[in-house]
Write a structure and sequence with these properties.
119 residues, mainly alpha
């Protein structure tokens, strides 16, 4: 059960960091909007609900007397959400500080930041 709590904590921290960097980016670009913020929060809520669904599927199979056909779906959902949030955070950071787009920082995450590359 401890691993499940850590997965939930990691996902929540990535969601929070993405939300904060998104607000900073919108403030810098003078694009703060309560409508966009509300939509963003609903998207984040859907990620949390997807994680809850993954956990519920795994947790309920033995109780219902069914084979565990979902395997490690909870962990897979957590990894998917975390990767999605990491990409969004990196995009936000690049928009907040354009120097990061051309620095080696994003390459640490496997981002191809050189738009002038050929081939």
């Amino acid at each position: 059960m401890q691993v499940e709590l850590y997965v939930a904590l990691v996902v929540m921290l990535f969601i929070i960091l993405d939300f904060v960097t998104g607000i900073i980016k919108a403030a810098i670009k003078s694009e703060l909007s309560s409508t966009k913020m509300r939509e963003g929060l609903m998207h984040k809520l859907s990620f949390i609900l997807a994680l809850l669904l993954g956990w519920l599927c795994e947790w309920s199979m033995p109780i219902l007397g069914l084979p565990d056909v979902f395997g490690a779906v909870y962990m897979a959902v957590g990894v998917y959400i975390s990767c999605t949030e990491i990409v969004s955070i990196l995009e936000n950071l690049g928009d907040i500080n354009p120097e990061l787009k051309t620095s080696k920082f994003l390459s640490l995450f496997g981002e191809n930041t050189n738009d002038n590359k050929e081939g």
